[in-house]
Design goal:
Elements lengths: L1 H8 L8 H16 L3 E5 L3 E6 L2 E10 L15 E3 L2 E3 L3 H18 L4 E8 L10 H7 L5 E4 L9 E5 L1 E10 L15 H13 L9 E9 L9 E10 L2 H12 L9 E10 L6 H16 L6 E4 L4 H7 L4 E2 L6 E2 L7 E3 L2 H14 L4
Parallel strand pairs: 3-6, 3-7, 7-14, 8-13
Antiparallel strand pairs: 1-2, 2-6, 4-5, 5-16, 9-11, 9-12, 10-11, 15-16
Helix pairs in contact: 1-3, 3-9, 7-9
């Protein structure tokens, strides 16, 4: 397992680079060895079919990372005690190793399996989504090998994610001689940021973050245009609808300023379903057999599990390896967790409880 992990980490695979296909090819080779019929789809997504009994299960992961090519020079793969470090080692190269090992351990007693590895998950899976939805057709459940939460918690729900752009159109003027004739888009944007922040409702799990602002052309010009890029997270579809209505109702403070809202939702909320509850209870039973006391949580981050839940498939997420530091310089995986999490997943592949 360690050698495959090293090999995958040392293939640098930021989204939309050749490394993504290289990781998919390497995973395809591993899956073919286990008897899978492997297909490479447009966009470098991988789909594999493995025979078994009963309704098929969909097992989902991704081959891309957030780290640019060249990161290995400053963050090489290395092992220090029980931890392995390197770009993408936790999110999610180690999880891909868990996936392969779990299928091997499940052996002939497994359910019929369908594996889908997304090539652009870190960008919201824009090209993968229709292919992923097609792969979900007829499956009993989806098992997502994203990393678990704190203390190894599994994920039965995730927030939905939206990325919006609020553009303000004002009117330029000379700041020294005719400022009164201008309409400052920057001033208006400041008012709108306050309005956006007022929509935050942490108790309900609704958050809005103005993460990037831009505008103006020069200090001596009243800004004709300004823009804010906003991250929006919601726990339920009802909350999503409420935020949509609130964003549509934004009005300029200055009567001559104009607002333009762009962007949209990249992932729907994954709400805990009855099927997800059954999957979790089965996983918790298996965990206790393996010496794990598993709990469940809701995650503020999105995954392909959100997309699968939206088409009515029961989803259990967070079945990958334990570690920490995703997208950060201290990204690491706890090596002893790999065989244990592979055992957990292999038992679900035999009998997921649905």
């Amino acid at each position: 397992m360690l050698e495959l992990l090293r090999e995958l980490v040392e293939i640098e695979s930021p989204t939309y680079t050749p490394g993504v296909r290289a990781v998919a090819d390497r995973m395809g080779s591993e899956l073919a060895t286990l008897g899978a019929n492997v297909s490479m789809l447009d966009g470098d997504h991988l789909r594999a079919e493995l025979g078994g009994s009963g309704e098929p299960l969909l097992v989902v992961g991704h081959t891309d990372t957030v780290w640019p090519v060249g990161t290995l020079e400053s963050m090489p793969f290395r092992v220090d005690g029980d931890h392995a470090f390197g770009p993408g080692v936790y999110d999610m190269k180690s999880c891909l190793v868990v996936l392969v090992e779990a299928i091997r351990l499940a052996g002939a007693e497994r359910r019929t399996l369908r594996v889908f590895l997304t090539a652009d998950e870190e960008m919201g899976s824009p090209t993968a989504r229709p292919l992923l939805e097609a792969a979900a057709d007829g499956v009993a459940a989806a098992l997502v090998v994203e990393p678990p939460g704190s203390s190894g918690k599994l994920k039965t729900s995730r927030k939905g994610l939206g990325r919006f752009r609020l553009t303000i159109h004002g009117r330029p003027a000379h700041a020294g001689t005719h400022r009164h004739k201008g309409v400052s888009a920057i001033d208006e944007l400041a008012h709108q940021i306050h309005a956006l922040n007022a929509l935050n409702d942490p108790e309900r799990g609704t958050t809005l973050n103005v993460g990037v602002v831009s505008g103006g052309t020069s200090e001596n010009v009243v800004a004709a245009e300004a823009q804010a890029r906003v991250d929006v997270r919601v726990a339920t579809m009802a909350d999503r609808d409420e935020i949509e209505r609130a964003l549509a109702k934004l009005e300029p403070v200055h009567p001559e300023a104009k607002l333009e809202l762009g962007g949209g939702w990249t992932r729907p909320p994954l709400e805990r379903s009855e099927g997800a509850g059954r999957l979790f209870e089965q996983a918790r039973t298996y965990g206790r057999e393996l010496g794990l006391e598993l709990d469940e949580e809701s995650s503020g981050g999105g995954s392909d599990g959100n997309l699968l839940g939206a088409v009515g498939v029961p989803v259990l997420d967070g079945l990958g390896a334990e570690g920490g530091g995703a997208h950060a310089p201290d990204e690491h995986v706890v090596l002893p967790s790999l065989p244990v999490r592979a055992q957990l997943l292999s038992r679900l592949l035999r009998n997921p409880g649905v």
